[in-house]
Specification:
The complex is a heterodimer of chains A (about 750) and B (about 260). With about 750 residues, chain A is of the alpha+beta class. Chain A has 15 helices and 28 strands. Chain B is of the alpha+beta class. Helix content of chain B is about 30%, strand content about 25%. Chain B has helices at about 10-20, 30-35, 70-75, 80-85, 85-90, 95-100, 105-110, 120-125, 140-145, 225-230, 245-260; strands at about 1-5, 25, 45, 55-60, 65, 130-135, 135-140, 145-150, 150, 160-165, 170-175, 190-195, 200-205, 215-220. The chains are: A alpha+beta (about 750), B alpha+beta (about 260).
């Protein structure tokens, strides 16, 4: 409904352009990383821990080595270089050494002629474990034995927190943390573990180059940071490891960490054969990190007129066994804990702990999802306490340019929080549908559980925000290379950029930018690889459009300048080849004791969204049908409006999933629902039509004024759906996913 | 792994007698999941897809005979859907269209999962399961055929031919609770019929005990029936739902189904 009817093939910035990968993906011709093939390739298989926490007494590979078709069986002793890796801290062994810390941790790897031979050989590897008591309760983790020797994350400029198992803790003190209001509301909120649930499993192909190096074809989010983690573990120079982007079947943060890259490379270098690895669905659930589960206490103090006086929050995140990007998630959960509201006083205490639960890291929304669920529940509660309209309450407190966040960071760019709230609130809500209706249009859907009995309607509202680009002093720059050459019709351009197309549409962004800047239709995008261009940074943090457009713009303008210097024309065979690196404005760390910004500020820019949700709930059975979602989102500038609407709808579906059904369940650290039979994601009957409004207030120092769009819909929709369910049921519903038990009032 | 593909029932029964370890496969919507997840590695698969004897349905002396190979898609089509409306409604809740094109009633009987969606509708229709081996044919009432979770009374050398079930005499319905609005394994399910000819309300639940189970009452004796149905269940806590919720939902479903069928 939202997308413009007409899309172009060769559009420019601001026009809706058909995705270049749309047809192949729909027809099944698109080659994903699991479709890779090389002549003479072997198949790799991973032996994983069945325990959440255990000592490894012995790994006996003798039987497996001699099996038919088996070419290699490797353990940690075979890791040629560094034994551990990690996105922020190298705390994760390539293959477990002496101890396993989570269910599914890789212990050994096998390469064989056929995947079944590899699997059978893996079964014959005898690993003797001595199970240890797993640390599974994050609230007790800081009093239990440390699961890592030493403190892997200590000494990185973080607040000194000597308690065992702390990954990072942050305290933000802002104004007078004891300031009193006239009205106080508080609550405790919980979120379960959400999975990215991408459809394309972890997979790739490692090909030895015959000179000691390796080419790795893989679905990832950041080619160069993969290379920088893989090379040291292989004992190679970065140039000897070339990472090439293969077809990515979804990412959502779950491909920021390495999965099979080092393993396949080790097997390939050991056997001197190409080695392919493809995780199966169950394995995928242990093969990547998840969204941090959280327990959050918040107290809001306000004046009778609704103005917030003081927000106090304590946030506990379970990071699982390894650090991954937990430290940055902790910073986000803290910095955005008060929501997009002007608060003069705040005390936010946030800690992320190591446990033997599944490791957690990056997932769409990155810490802001958890905080938004809590602060928006609090805003609804405050509105009810004050007898104030929830929209009015939010408008009265909305952050605006010139205001400061609790970190002390002053908002200098675009921040249309009030505008997104007004626009979302103004969207007309559909009238209730008449009964009788087809069961498919009632809560319970095809289950045929009601013909209207027990069904109540609720309307929810929520606002949320987060930052764009990396933060706290990280310079996540993006390189682009442009090559101009003479063609039959004048000039043709080839662009190289290592930005990962993960489904978000950055390929179109790059092409549209190049066409716009060069005023050319004939632009070709080279494949994304570490060997032809510098780092693009990660397809994460809603940053890739901004950063890729910035880099391509710089490179195109440099190429154009050079073309003009040469008289505006190229001879046949003559080329211009320039590479430029785009940096966002610098950021600086938070003060380790006060959580206040130092220097330029911790964040680059902010994006916000507001959402209104209509839901019908069968209050006797606890089943839900979300009927309609209206949203207004701050996007800066829509480079490809159709893709922006797609990101908004997809992001909403993912947040709706967390609100209603998506949860990795564990028992003593073991995942009990590692399949799409029992880890449910929304179907088309669960996802309502979305009415989306784009708010385009350009960001001053971004190319074309763009921001990012991928995360705000996910940040807000979990909170907004829960709000609608509360309105329909009159219950608190303090935990997501909301269980039917809670709706019907079972203990 | 061997795959045997008989083309007649006699041939199939001979093969099953010779290879009692052979796992029958029809639609494959259960068997292939087990294979793909590496939970089962049968030495032999007995492919029943070529057996005309197992296909379709027919009328027999006032009852309906369902072939073991009847798909859920077929069970949703008129006129069968009018004769067995609860089975049609249950079939609509099974997976997506592709799964309903492959999955069969016989498969539900063979797997004998407490969550088998076809089982409660068959139970309220007094279903009798037809079994055959080279030793001969026999029939077993469905409630006796289902002996435990994923266990049934099928002998090693037997195959399921189909089921005979009483056509609806009065309103019927089927309801299934799942954590999302389509494509779920039931958290709890219920089939119910008001059979005025027999002066009986018959309810059967799934996913609320080791086997799908029937509970009935006289029409004049419906006070407290939802609670009695819930009390007959022995649900457990698992990843799909809690025991307490299953009991609660079963009583809500029963009350609604009675009201729906009495209208």
């Amino acid at each position: 409904m939202n997308a413009p009817a007409r899309t172009l093939e060769l559009g420019r910035v601001g026009e809706s352009v058909k995705r270049v990968d749309a047809i192949p993906k729909v027809t099944g011709e698109f080659a994903y990383s699991s479709d890779l093939f090389a002549a003479g390739m072997l198949w790799g298989h991973t032996v994983r821990s069945p325990h959440a926490h255990a000592l490894i007494e012995e790994v006996d590979i003798s039987e497996a080595v001699g099996m038919a078709g088996v070419h290699a069986v490797l353990t940690h002793t075979d890791v040629p270089g560094a034994k551990a890796y990690g996105l922020e801290f190298a705390d994760q062994p390539v293959l477990a050494i002496e101890r396993v810390r989570y269910f599914g941790e890789p212990v050994a790897i096998v390469a064989a002629e056929h995947p079944e031979q590899a699997r059978r050989a893996a079964e014959r590897i005898r690993v003797a474990y001595e199970p240890l008591e797993p640390v599974v309760d994050p609230e007790r983790a800081t009093e239990q034995e440390p699961i890592h020797d030493g403190r892997p994350t200590a000494g990185h400029g973080f607040r000194d927190d000597p308690r065992p198992n702390v990954v990072r803790s942050i305290v933000i003190r802002h104004g007078d943390p004891d300031a009193q209001g006239e009205v106080t509301v508080s609550g405790v909120y919980e979120l379960g573990i959400q999975d990215q649930a991408f459809l394309g499993p972890e997979s790739g192909l490692a090909v030895p180059d015959g000179e000691g190096g390796v080419d790795v074809y893989v679905a990832t989010q950041w080619l160069h940071v993969d290379r920088d983690q893989v090379a040291p573990c292989l004992g190679l120079d970065p140039e000897q490891v070339r990472i090439h982007l293969s077809g990515v079947g979804g990412a959502f943060g779950g491909r920021e960490d390495l999965s099979m890259q080092i393993h396949a490379s080790m097997l390939a270098l050991h056997t001197n054969r190409p080695v392919k690895m493809v995780y199966n669905r169950e394995e995928s659930f242990v093969g990547h990190i998840h969204r941090h589960p959280a327990k959050i206490w918040m107290e809001h103090r306000a004046k009778r007129d609704g103005k917030l006086v003081n927000v106090r929050a304590r946030i506990l995140l379970d990071g699982g066994a390894y650090a991954s990007s937990s430290a940055a998630v902790t910073a986000n959960a803290s910095a955005f804990a008060c929501g997009p509201y002007a608060v003069e006083n705040a005390l936010v205490e946030c800690a992320c702990v190591y446990t033997n639960n599944p490791p957690c890291g990056a997932m769409r929304g990155f810490g802001a999802v958890q905080s938004c669920f809590a602060h928006e529940a609090q805003m609804d509660k405050l509105g009810a306490e004050l007898g104030m309209d929830p929209v009015e309450l939010r408008l009265r407190n909305a952050l605006a340019p010139g205001d400061s966040l609790p970190t002390g960071q002053k908002i200098t760019g675009s921040f249309p929080a009030a505008e997104v709230i007004r626009r979302a609130a103004a969207l007309p809500i559909p009238e209730p549908e008449e009964l009788p209706r087809d069961a498919l249009r009632l809560p319970g859907g095809s289950g045929n559980t009601t013909r209207g009995e027990g069904v109540r309607r609720g309307v929810g509202f929520a606002v949320g925000f987060k930052n764009v680009c990396y933060s706290e002093g990280f310079d996540d720059s993006t390189a682009a290379r442009v090559r101009l050459a003479a063609s039959d019709d004048g000039i043709a351009a080839v662009v190289h950029c290592a930005a990962a197309e993960v489904g978000q549409g950055v390929v179109n962004v790059i092409l549209q930018t190049a066409r716009t800047e060069l005023d050319l239709d004939e632009v070709v995008l080279g494949s994304a690889t570490t060997s032809s261009v510098g780092s693009a940074g990660s397809a994460s943090a809603s940053r890739m459009t901004w950063m890729a457009a910035g880099a391509v713009q710089l490179a195109c303008r440099a190429a154009k300048d050079e073309l003009e210097r040469r008289g505006g024309d190229l001879e046949h065979g003559e080329t211009i080849d320039v590479e430029r690196v785009y940096h966002h404005r610098p950021t600086t760390p938070l003060d380790r004791e006060t959580g206040q910004v130092t220097g330029d500020g911790a964040h680059v820019a902010y994006i916000c969204a507001a959402m209104r949700v209509v839901a019908e709930v069968d209050v006797e059975l606890g089943l839900t049908r979300v009927v309609w979602i209206g949203t207004a989102q701050d996007v800066g500038k829509a480079v490809n409006p159709q893709a922006v609407y797609g990101q908004i709808e997809g992001g909403i579906a993912q947040g709706l999933g967390l609100a209603l059904m998506e949860e990795i369940q564990t028992q003593d650290g073991l995942i009990t629902n590692a399949s799409f039979t029992d880890y449910l994601i929304p179907t088309t009957l669960d996802m309502p039509p979305v009415e989306a409004q784009l708010v385009e207030e350009p960001e001053p120092d971004a190319p074309y004024g763009v921001k990012g769009v991928g995360e705000p819909p996910t940040v807000v929709s979990t909170a907004a759906v829960a709000s609608a369910l509360r309105d329909a049921t009159g219950r608190q519903l303090t935990r997501v996913p909301v269980r039917p038990d809670e709706i019907v009032g079972l203990p | 792994m061997d795959v045997l593909t008989p083309t007649t029932l006699d041939e199939a029964l001979r093969m099953k007698a010779e290879r009692p370890d052979a796992v029958p496969i029809q639609g494959g919507t259960d068997v292939m999941v087990e294979l793909n997840f590496d939970r089962a590695r049968p030495a032999v698969l007995l492919n029943l897809n070529e057996l005309a004897e197992l296909r379709g349905w027919s009328r027999e002396n006032g009852s309906i005979r369902l072939g073991a190979g009847l798909t859920y898609t077929e069970a949703m089509e008129a006129p069968l859907a009018e004769k067995l409306p609860a089975l049609a409604e249950a079939s609509r809740t099974v997976g997506g269209p592709q799964i309903r094109n492959r999955g069969t009633v016989g498969g539900n009987l063979g797997t004998a999962s407490p969550a088998g969606d076809a089982l409660p509708p068959l139970l309220i229709g007094d279903a009798v399961v037809e079994l055959a081996s080279i030793r001969g044919e026999r029939t077993v009432p469905l409630n006796e055929f289902l002996t435990g979770p994923k266990r049934n009374a099928l002998a090693d050398d037997e195959l399921i031919l189909g089921a005979r079930v009483r056509a609806a005499h009065g309103a019927q319905t089927f309801m299934k609770v799942g954590p999302r609005n389509a494509m779920v394994i039931s958290v709890v399910s219920l089939a119910l019929t008001v059979d005025r000819e027999r002066d009986e309300v018959r309810a059967a639940f799934g996913s609320a005990g080791p086997v799908a189970r029937l509970v009935s009452a006289r029409l004049a004796d419906l006070d407290g029936f939802p609670e009695r149905v819930a009390a007959a269940a022995s649900p457990i806590d698992d990843v799909r739902g809690s025991a307490a919720y299953r009991s609660h939902a079963l009583s809500v479903l029963t009350a609604r189904a009675v009201e729906r069928c009495l209208q």
